[in-house]
Amino acid sequence: MPFQPIEMSAWKRRSYFEHFLNTVPCGYSATTDLDITRLANALKTGGFKSYPALIHALCTIVNRHAAFRTAFGASGEPGIWDDMHPAYTIFSAKHETFSSIWTEYHADFTVFHERYLHDCGRFADIPELFPKPDTPENVFPISSLPWVPFTAFNLNVQSTSPYLLPIFTFGKFRKDGKAITVPLSSQVHHAVCDGYHLGQFLQDLQNHLNEPEHWL
C-alpha cells in the first residue's frame, strides 16, 4: 500500500491544488445513471450479488485513476496511494442501523466476492459504525441507498482537514423495459479532481460495466 508523496515544485497541478484547497476551498458532486443491464444479466447467470459487483467495479476503476487515489499522508503532505480498497456500508434490518466495513480488494472478482460474503457474514449484525477492526489508510468510502431512486445527492462534509478522496453513493435500481440503471453520486474535491477527471472516470466505469464477461 505504498504512499507516494507528490513533489510539489514539479507538479503541474500545483496552482489548481493550492487555489481549490486554500483560496476557494471546495468540492462538488455529480449524479449519473449507470447502465448495468448486461452486468445484471451476467450476475444472475453466475449467481453473484450485485452490490459487491458494483463495489468491485468502482475499486477497479479508482485504481486506474491517480486523481481518485490522491490524499494527505500521515505527515500532512499530499500524495498518491499505489492502490485502494473499498470501505462500504451494509444495513442491518435487525437493528435498523448501518455499519461501514472494509474488504481487501482483489482484481479477481470471484476472490473479492468471497471476501465480501465473509466480511458481511461476520459483521452485518453488529450495531456499531465500524465493527471491522484494522481499517487501512488506503480506503475510500462507498454507501448505498437502495430504497431511494434519487436523481441528485450531495454530502455536506464539514472538517478542519480537507478530505481529498472520492465518496460514492449508489441509489435504487431502475427498470425501463429491459434496461436496468442505477444512480451513482460521486463527491470529489476540486483540489485534485476537475470535471475532466470525473468525466474520464465515469466513462471508464461505464465501459467496464458494459463488459462483465471480461471480469466476472
Automatic annotation (TrEMBL):
Q: Does the keyword Transcription regulation apply?
A: no
Which biological process annotations from GO are given for this protein?
response to antibiotic
Identify the Pfam families for this entry: CAT (PF00302)
Catalytic positions are H190 (proton acceptor)
Q: What InterPro entries does UniProt report for this protein, alphabetically?
A: CAT-like_dom_sf, Chloramphenicol_AcTrfase_AS, Cmp_AcTrfase
Q: Name one GO molecular function term.
A: chloramphenicol O-acetyltransferase activity
Q: Which UniProt keywords apply?
A: Acyltransferase, Antibiotic resistance, Transferase
Q: Which SUPFAM superfamilies match?
A: CoA-dependent acyltransferases
Top EC class for this record: transferase
Q: Which domain of life is it from?
A: Bacteria
EC no.? 2.3.1.28
Q: What PROSITE patterns does the entry give? A: CAT (PS00100)
Q: What does the sequence similarity comment in the record state about its family?
A: Belongs to the chloramphenicol acetyltransferase family.
Free-text function comment from the UniProt entry: This enzyme is an effector of chloramphenicol resistance in bacteria.
Would you tell me the protein name for this molecule? Chloramphenicol acetyltransferase
